[in-house]
Design a protein that fits this description.
This protein has 8 helices and 7 strands; from the N terminus they run αααβαβαβαβαβαββ. The longest helix is centred in the N-terminal third of the chain and has 14 residues, at 28-41. It has one domain (2-187): Rossmann fold. Strand 6 (171-176) and strand 7 form a beta hairpin. By secondary structure, it is an alpha/beta fold. The chain has helices at 7-17, 20-23, 28-41, 55-66, 78-90, 104-109, 129-136, 155-167; strands spanning 45-49, 70-75, 97-101, 117-122, 140-149, 171-176, 182-187.
């Protein structure tokens, strides 16, 4: 799938894959899966919690751009979102991505009331996963998809989130056997 991207984007993604452990990036397999979901579903509005160096944001940004959409991404560490911003510019997705710096819970609490999403991807502080879910849920449109990475690799840290989404009557949820484990839920109402 990376072959469908321009040469610069291909090179940036391959370089970022070399730093996957340093920046806790998702696997290419997970990135391709998320890209396919967004493009296939025709989603046009998304939120990412945990920008890091922009690896997943490039994939998500490419998908939203293909659909004529926009996304926001949240990152606490200035050094990381500065790197991500440069990578977004190199890969031609800076025009569809709004970087929202700060602590994720606070940023989510302060989002404009009318900002809604049809796709959410969470890959940040695992212990706060349940808080991100609580704050994103009212903004996620019916029919939208909520995803959270590392639910197998960090099972104990995300258990309160898993319990919350499994118990929530508005979601159909499963854990996909992608590297690190991906929580995948559709909001049905």
């Amino acid at each position: 799938m990376i072959e469908n991207f321009d040469k610069i984007t291909q090179e940036v993604l391959k370089d970022l894959e070399k730093t996957q452990r340093d920046f806790w990036n998702i696997s290419r397999q997970t990135a391709e899966f998320l890209y396919k979901i967004i493009t296939t579903e025709g989603f046009v509005s998304g939120i990412e919690v945990g920008t890091s160096n922009g690896y997943s944001g490039i994939w998500l940004g490419k998908a939203f751009k293909a659909n004529g959409g926009q996304m926001s991404t949240i990152e606490f560490y200035e050094k990381r979102y500065s790197i991500a911003r440069a990578n977004f510019e190199k890969c031609g997705v800076a025009d569809v991505i709004t970087i929202r710096p700060g602590e994720a819970v606070k940023v989510l609490e302060d989002l404009p009331e009318d900002l809604k999403f049809d796709f959410a991807f969470v890959d940040a502080n695992k212990r706060e996963s349940v808080d991100y879910f609580r704050l994103i849920h009212p903004r996620l449109k019916a029919g939208g998809i909520y995803t959270c990475d590392n639910v197998l690799s960090h099972k104990e840290k995300v258990q309160t989130y898993i319990d919350a989404i499994n118990a929530h009557p508005d979601y159909i949820h499963t854990v996909l056997d992608l590297p690190a484990g991906l929580s995948f839920a559709r909001k049905i109402r």
